[in-house]
Amino acid sequence: MVAGFEYLNDHVIVTDENANILYANKAAEENTGFSRKEMIAKNPGDLWGSNMPPDFYRKMWHRIKIENKPFVGDVLAKRKDGREYWNELKIVPILGKNLKPRFLIGIEPNITLKKRAEEFRQDITSIIGHQSRNCLVAARYTLEGMMRKGGLPKNQRDTLKKVCEYATRTVKFLNDFLVLSRIDAVLPSREAFDIGQQTKEIVALVKENHPGTHFDLQIRGAYPFTANKSLAFQVFLNLVSNAAEYSSASRGRVRIALKKQRGQYLFSVQDNGIGIPRKDQPKIFNRFFRASNAGKMKKEGTGLGLYIVKKISDYLGWKVSLKSKTGKGTTFFVVIPGRR
User: Fold this and answer.
1) What pTM does this model have?
2) Which runs of consecutive H residues, i.e. helices, occur in the chain?
């Protein structure tokens, strides 16, 4: 089997259970700049590895040594000459008689060009999105200023009002689009924050846009957590905003709760709006999907808000679900595992 690795163009190494290198193919020499002699009996982390956050390696070793399963992930590496590059790391554990890893086979295709192309696409997307949004916001403020000055015939005021509404909807779409464009691009950065405090800040923001809606906040105590704070913020913001927008038009009420449950946090947000028809519920987290009755409460929508919630939740390892009955309102739940 080892002889066959010599014919592969991808970097391949074989190690013992502690990742000490036993074999490296020619492609590994070309990829890392280290000779096979320099690699043997060494750990990849001491040569070209150890450039990812500690949490990346904790998950990697848990997958390999505890679950005894293959691991796949993109890793930043560094050649002998100091140049950085990206590998798509694939580690397959070979189990011994005790059903524990005895050898590890690591296959590491160089994906640097692919990564650069992704970064370029993300940068261009972000630039275009931000510039378009800024132009629309400026145009909207100009039009609103013209309407406030007065002196315009009714037909012109009506036209300007429609244009402003269109600009507002487009800005909302671009905001959602920019959030989506950076989800997969977000570095696995983590910081400590309190979910309860973050939720209170979000409710205060949403209240400003929905002064006629009553918000019932049920959060007691501290809820420390460590994750990507900006992505977590987006999940809670979208859910609370969605509840406020689709609560009862005449007596809107939104109930936000956060509690500790079996070593996890359970976040929920409930509205007293029109609810989601049963036939629409399986598709509610789909991209661009809006419930068939949504137009009764909100004529225009991007259909991206809940899709973003689901995508970020999946990224963070959270579980999002809902319970809804037509005419009775909707409750969204987010299960956040592990008080980290």
Assistant:
1) 0.56
2) 2-5, 26-32, 36-39, 44-47, 54-61, 112-149, 154-183, 195-209, 229-245, 305-316
